[in-house]
Write a structure and sequence with these properties.
Layout (H helix, E strand, L loop, with lengths): L2 H4 L1 E4 L5 E4 L4 E5 L15 E8 L10 E2 L7 E5 L9 E8 L2 E7 L12 E3 L1 H5 L2
Antiparallel strand pairs: 1-2, 1-9, 2-3, 3-4, 4-5, 4-6, 6-7, 7-8, 8-9
Length: 125
């Protein structure tokens, strides 16, 4: 997904809210509502977001601030989410693109946990 398509506010059915700025700033509220149980991440904070690289031959990825598109983003920095570094997996289903916030990239989100583009945010851009 292209960076410009990610910019805006994303919300879940459970009330989590994540705003991704064009300046790569990220702010979130009620984020634990979008995470699988057992997370020690705090509920709200601010920081930066960046894309992960595609996996290399060994299957490793890393955050690269120069990337302008990707299928996974890192949300961290500036004490974002306490000591947590979250990932958001970019997916697409019958309702369109969504973000699945995870601490473990092998995790999956339920329909209620998925963050979807806030329609008010999409109209104002």
């Amino acid at each position: 997904m292209d960076r410009t398509a990610l910019v805006g506010t994303w919300t879940s059915e459970t009330g989590a809210r994540l705003t991704l700025g064009a300046d790569r700033r990220a702010t979130g509220t009620d984020l634990r509502k979008a995470l699988l149980g057992g997370s020690t991440c705090t509920d709200s904070a601010s920081g930066e977001w960046s894309f992960y690289t595609a996996p290399d031959k060994a299957g490793s990825t890393h955050v690269d601030d120069s990337l302008t598109s990707g299928q996974q983003i890192a949300i961290g920095g500036d004490g974002m989410i306490g000591n947590c570094l979250l990932s958001a997996l970019v997916r697409k289903d019958e309702r369109g693109f969504n973000l699945c916030l995870v601490v473990d990239p092998d995790s999956a989100c339920s329909a209620e946990e998925l963050l979807r583009r806030d329609q008010e945010s999409a109209r104002s851009e």
